Amino acid sequence: GLLLLAAALRVTAAAHCPEPCVCDNLRSHVLCLNGSVTAIPDTIPELTRKLDLRGNSFVVIPAGAFLATPYLTHLDLQRCKVERLEEGAFRGLGRLVYLNLASNGIALLYQESLDGLFSLQQLILEGNHIEEIQPGAFGHLGSLIVLDLRANALVYLPDMVFQGLQVLRWLRLSHNALHVLGNEAFAALPALRRLSLDHNELQTLPGEALARLDGATRLDLGHNPITYVAEEALAMASLRHLFLDHASLQDVAPDAFARSPQLRILDLRENQLQGLPPLAGAGGLVRVTLDGNPLLCSCLLRPFQKWLARARVQAEGACAAPPALRGRSLNSLKSPEMRCSRFRPPPRPTAPPEQPRAGGSRQCPRGCVCSDFHHGSCENRDLQEIPRDFPEDTRLLDLRRNPFRTVPPDAFPGLKELVSLYLQRCSIRVLHPGALRGLESLVYLYLNNNHLSTLAAAAFEGAPQLAYLDLDHNAFTRVPAGIFQLLPNLISLHLQHNAIEELAEGDLAGATGLRWLFLAGNAIRHISPAALAPTKMLEKLQLEGNHLLEVPTTALRGLPALSELKLSRNPIKHMGDSVFLPVASSLQHLYLDNMGLEQISPYAFTGLGPKIRSLYLESNKMSNIPDMSNFTGLEILNLQDVPFHCDCRLLPLHRWINKLNLRVGATCGSPAEAQGLKVKLSTTFQTCPGWQQGKAGETNPNKTKATNKPSKKKRSGKSTAGGFSKSRA
């Protein structure tokens, strides 16, 4: 009897819905949206199937965070400011089939980060800061069907990086910065049917890596700077759809696709092709799309045109020259019209030469481990000096947690193929000139958590491909100026949690290709008007947790690509007119939370509008905010912990919030009768002039539908995936 009573009490306790969450009647679907939750709630009902935690602030998902909810099948952690997944974070979730971690700050996937998810079918990691994936990170995901890694910071895919994904059907790698693929990067994907590699930095078609995908039927390679497709460049036995649109193609070899016999659709839109040869090797082609190319419809195009007719291939495209044929579709041309005059064709581009691969015996320094997948590791071996004699084909070298103290000149001889070098927590104080000499393929360098205070530019001599430099948690008091002239391919610079006090003119000289600049957690008080001028390609600027007293408006001029600006946790009390105007045409994500902000000018957001997708204003002290009715593209708006004064001056905000299809968390701080009430529910507005007229507009179903339509369109296919529905404010 006592056992039955205890069980009944446990069921009753589990039935309660934790604050501030919302549960359905059966407690199987729990929503805790856009709140100030900073830890995974431990009172969620045990039998919960779907848990939606979007828009909270977890930062770290600790080991065993969900052990209390073993029946979960769907888990949504979008926009939760997650930076790290500890090993074993999802252990116990053996029934989970859908996990959404999109739009967080995750930078690295460790081997055991995703341990225990053996039933997972969809994993969404879109829009994080993932720069590198450690081998084995996906080894426990044997049921995964879709892996979404879009919009991260990947440059390199090592061999066997997707090992364990035996049933994966769609791999999404779009919108990264990939330009190095290991020849065996896709070797462990026997079930893959679709591969998305569009919007990357691939300069040549990665034929050897793609040849491992015998079953893939669709390949997206558009928006890559590929100039030439060489002879037999693509050997994919099952490929049916190939997209090479919006690249830089100038020529395609006649038998480029001879080893892809199932190819049916070839999309070559928006390239630089003046013509094509007969693609005799692609016997199964049905359609070739050439719209947007500068096609020269002269006699030189006759062989291609005759081949189209003979092979019964449909061609889409129009002539750009000669003038007499400009605008004519390819299908309408007759051979006699395609004449030659005094025309000399440009020289045919040649394929980039194959880089000889360094041979490598499997020798390995004593105490270290060297795998057949070109990885070397001496982590935490108490080594005083950097070991040598690694295999010459080593591509990833892990030397973390050794007390080296210095990195001498020529510290890594013979490692011309090295791509990733880990030197975290090595007590390093000095990087000597020539330290990286010979590392001509190095892309990633991790020097975080050391004792560096200065860097000599000559230390980076001989590593021109370096794209990611992590100097977080060191002792810099200023940006190490002068090093960027030797790093023409630098994309991402991490200088977080140092002691930098100023960003001065000339500090970033030479950083012309920089896209992401991370300066959080310093002591920056001033940014020179010209400090950011060299970084014209900058997309993300993170300045949270510094000592700025005002928005650095002048310094933001000349940044036409800036899409994300983080100013959180700076002591900015007042915000004047047009402070974001220099970046208004590109800005999409703006973080202004936790600043103690007391007053925002009505014109502070001048220029901002439909492009803004997320705006964070939580935990501030202002009582009103500017008109944002033209922010029609908003997907996230956080107004929690702002003491709004709910009088008639706030009526426009009240009406606007009621029309939004978002949870914003806005509450009244005053007057006393409204304190603690949600702005959208407060009755203090009912005495305001024009209340009834506005109320009629709000209840008009046609008007409401029209107002919500843009937001709904923006969000389709994202937050509703996996069975979660949108929730109104």
UniProtKB/TrEMBL annotation:
Residues 16-50, 363-396 form the LRRNT domain. Residues 699-709 have a biased composition (Low complexity). Potential negative modulator of chondrocyte differentiation. Inhibits collagen fibrillogenesis in vitro. May influence chondrocyte's differentiation by acting on its cellular collagenous microenvironment. Residues 336-363, 690-729 are annotated as: Disordered. SMART domains: LRR_BAC, LRR_TYP, LRRCT, LRRNT. PANTHER family: ANTIGEN BSP, PUTATIVE-RELATED, CHAOPTIN-RELATED. It comes from Thryothorus ludovicianus (Carolina wren). Residues 344-355 have a biased composition (Pro residues). InterPro entries: Cys-rich_flank_reg_C, Leu-rich_rpt, Leu-rich_rpt_typical-subtyp, LRR_dom_sf, LRR_TM_domain-containing, LRRNT. The gene is Chadl. Belongs to the small leucine-rich proteoglycan (SLRP) family. SLRP class IV subfamily. SUPFAM superfamilies: L domain-like (SSF52058). One of its GO terms (cellular component) is plasma membrane. Associates with collagen and binds to collagen fibrils. Residues 293-341, 643-689 form the LRRCT domain. This is Chondroadherin-like protein. It is found in: Secreted, Extracellular space, Extracellular matrix. Its main location: secreted. The keyword Signal applies. Keywords: Disulfide bond, Extracellular matrix, Glycoprotein, Leucine-rich repeat, Repeat, Secreted, Signal. It comes from the Eukaryota.
